[in-house]
Amino acid sequence: MSHQHAHGHSHNLDHGSARLRAALILTSIVLVxxxxxxxxxxxxxxxxxxxxxxxxxxxxxxALCAAYLSSRPPTNRRxxxxxxxEVISALLQAILLCAVGLFVVAESVNRLLHPSTVAAxxxxxxxxxxxVCNLIAIAILASRRGHSLNLRAAxxxxxxxxxxxxxxxxxxxxxxxxxxxxxxxxxxxLIGALIVPRAVRLIRETxxxxxxxxxxxxxxxxxxxxxxxxxxxxxxxxxHASLIATGLPVLTAHIVVDDECFDDGHARQQLADLKxxxxxxxxxxxxxxxxxxxxxxxxxxxxxxxxxGAEHVAAER
Length: 317
What we know:
It contains nine helices and five strands, in the order E-H-H-H-H-H-H-H-E-E-H-H-E-E. By secondary structure, it is an alpha/beta fold. The longest helix is centred in the middle third of the chain and has 30 residues, at 149-178.
């Protein structure tokens, strides 16, 4: 049995710890300010936004912890390190967001039925303070939001905060100009409507990773078709693809090839051709591909029916 392995891969990951730390500090400042503001103005929108901020502080703290854990090196027990910590963190943040959104909707409906007096001018100033801090946090996280689910979840939370602050400001202006107190509850309801759909979408994406679904943008039928075009390849079976963490897709497959590939030493070239195929042909380049070559003569008429004891050659990229 011959093995070719290439460990010690350098992923050059930017987990965004400094950005997350700065966003966490700014969000904590806004949280304290909005709690004080909600107590002074009796604004539901401001109170709901403060509750949202509380979940964001918790979420950003989890994101910061996950960024640190994801940078830990692999061990014999955890061969991928703790890369999936960022996925778990994103899932927990999304669940928190979803729970807050549902609470916001319920509380807003209740306040619409039982309106109360709101101090509009104070509400306006606290809303402006929250918006300014959120815009700074957005600028800090924006350039790296696509680098991981963890950073994307953190960015999403801050954007939702900014939209909530805008809703608070608009409601305060409406109340100050018209005296329409229900604007506060409507603003809170809008905040909830913005939170829930985004949270549900993020939950779905993180669960797909944890269930080892095929990475988005990767068509396994197309992968199989390209592998079959490699010279001497007769069939492909046990083809699997999943995502360990953001930017780390993996693929495994059993490849049935002509017997002469094992007799004339062509197997090494086969492995090089297969690795080149999955590394360059697809929208999602495969960072880690493991192939098991199987002689055609030892395989039955159906895929996967190879006889035990066949000479296998494995390659990991």
